[in-house]
Amino acid sequence: MHSKKFRLVSEEQLHAVYGVPAPASLAKEADHVHEIYRPFIEHAPYAVLATSGPSGLETSPRGDPAGHLVEVLDPNTLLMPDRRGNNRIDSLRNIISDPRISLLFLIPGIGETIRVKGRAEVMIDPELLDRFALDGRKPRTVLRILVERVFFQCSRALLRSKLWDPGTHVDRTALPSPGAILSALSADEIDGARYDIELPDRLKSTLY
């Protein structure tokens, strides 16, 4: 429908539209976890993990109390436990195939986010598993992330989205429930109503 002449296909064309980065946009990048960035990572209770593999790209939400989500082992290494989930292990399978990862850390109420790029390894070292036990439950694996790039993203996206503004929060009943989604996609083979009834207790008992 749209002419190909309007499609950008080279970095030169992109730079013609966007220009060059401001000096501050380049100065903020480090090749390790600089001490100025460390508290942002340690205060984050939530991150998005991006991976790539044979089946394509994946993004996975990761959450834990601040201080337990990720440990800064040293300026070049992060440790991230893989908590209980749905056992699809999409991200872990990707990492086994292609270790490149990217992380986006978010802190409630804070506009700036932290971006980390590097390479990850899937570890089952018993000492690491013990180290990240919560509520008496150990993670099955721990990611050891070798840091290559770290920088902060300014608050524009969060300001535009009003992400932390309670006045913009959507009532859960305005969207399909997990049970409704599963019922629709399984052609009613899964009892969605029952799934929704059982879900709160299941989440509570299987959080870790």
From TrEMBL:
Q: Which InterPro entries match?
A: Pyridox_Oxase_FMN-dep, Pyridox_Oxase_N, Split_barrel_FMN-bd
Write down the Pfam families for this protein, in alphabetical order: PNPOx_N (PF01243)
Recorded superkingdom: Bacteria
- Domain Pyridoxamine 5'-phosphate oxidase N-terminal: residue ranges: 37-154
What is this protein's name?
A: Pyridoxamine 5'-phosphate oxidase N-terminal domain-containing protein
Gene3D superfamilies registered for this protein in UniProt: Electron Transport, Fmn-binding Protein, Chain A
